[in-house]
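Page 37, continued from 36.
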């Protein structure tokens, strides 16, 4: 009797799991069929003479609105520009560069292995990397913040990533 109940429970659970993909899951705007109605037993797409909505992906269209004019052809190029900016005391009016506070990986808490966003004591808030870059631009460097889609912001974020990757490589345990 106990085996029979266990088998029935497994059967009921497996039936529920089999139907879950068709009715559950998060919606992906780049794939309107991520909760795939076309995978259902009675395919509503095949029953109609209309175009199959699952064959269209709105994120793969040829018409894309760019964030900005193309600035970089590679991560290495963006990182190299970011490195120059990291050392530039003329980004702000305080005479400081990023390197002034962050030489040799100091004051970045890279040893904590934290990804952004995270809480930063100096800011007193949970911030993204872009927000942290702009905080430093406005406060210690007394400069102007970078636009979110600017090549400057991309370069600084790329260099920070390269800088962090270098630190992690040098300090692997």
């Amino acid at each position: 009797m106990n085996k029979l109940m266990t088998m029935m429970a497994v059967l009921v659970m497996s039936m529920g799991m089999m139907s879950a993909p068709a009715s559950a899951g998060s919606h992906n705007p780049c794939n309107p069929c991520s909760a795939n109605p076309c995978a259902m037993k009675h395919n509503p797409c095949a029953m109609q003479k209309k175009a199959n909505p699952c064959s269209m992906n709105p994120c793969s269209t040829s018409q894309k609105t760019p964030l900005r004019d193309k600035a970089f052809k590679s991560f290495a190029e963006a990182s190299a520009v970011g490195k120059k900016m990291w050392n530039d005391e003329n980004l702000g009016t305080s005479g400081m560069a990023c390197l002034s506070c962050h030489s040799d990986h100091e004051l970045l808490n890279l040893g904590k292995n934290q990804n952004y966003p995270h809480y930063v004591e100096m800011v007193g808030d949970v911030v993204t990397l872009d927000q942290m870059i702009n905080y430093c631009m406005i406060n210690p460097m007394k400069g102007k913040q970078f636009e979110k889609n600017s090549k400057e912001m991309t370069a600084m974020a790329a260099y920070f990533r390269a800088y962090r990757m270098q630190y992690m490589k040098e300090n692997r345990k």
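The beta strands are 118-120, 125-127. Flag for discussion at group meeting. Residues 67 and 149 are 6 Å apart (CA to CA).
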